[in-house]
Amino acid sequence: VSQAIEKPRGKRPPSPHPTMRELHLPNRRRAQKFVTLEDLALELHTQISLTDTVESLKWKLSSQKFCPIQNIHFTISGREIPNTCQLRDHLDMHTRFLLNWHSPIA
Q: If the chain, 106 residues long, is cut into consecutive pieces of 10 residues, what is the mean pLDDT of each piece?
């Protein structure tokens, strides 16, 4: 007979960074991950050309994630990649960059 071990509910363990707090908003969708253009092509079930603009890729992401384009951000080395430039100006198919998006729509 195996017994399930229950974790005590209630208070969370103290945060390792007491000055950093996280606000929990129910029904809020968000993601922050490092990806390559190949990863996004597989996820979006489409082909991505390096001559595409950043904004065109954000449109594809926006339609899949039901998220406004202004809430999608691509950053590399802490700097945001502008919407008007072509992908090849900052990325190639194997360069990892940070994709950050959040949606106010539940």
A: 58 58 63 94 94 95 90 94 95 94 77
* Paired strand residues for 102: 30
Containing H/E element for 100? strand 97-103
CA distances to 10, 12, 58, 104 from 21, rounded to whole Å, are 17, 12, 30, 20
Tell me how far apart the 2 most distant CA atoms of the chain are, in Å: 63
H/E stretch holding 64: helix 54-65
- 97 and 34 Cβ atoms separated by less than 8 Å: yes
Whole-model pTM: value is 0.69
CB 80 within 8 A of CB 3: no
Residues in Cβ contact with 16 at an 8 Å cutoff, skipping those fewer than 6 apart: none
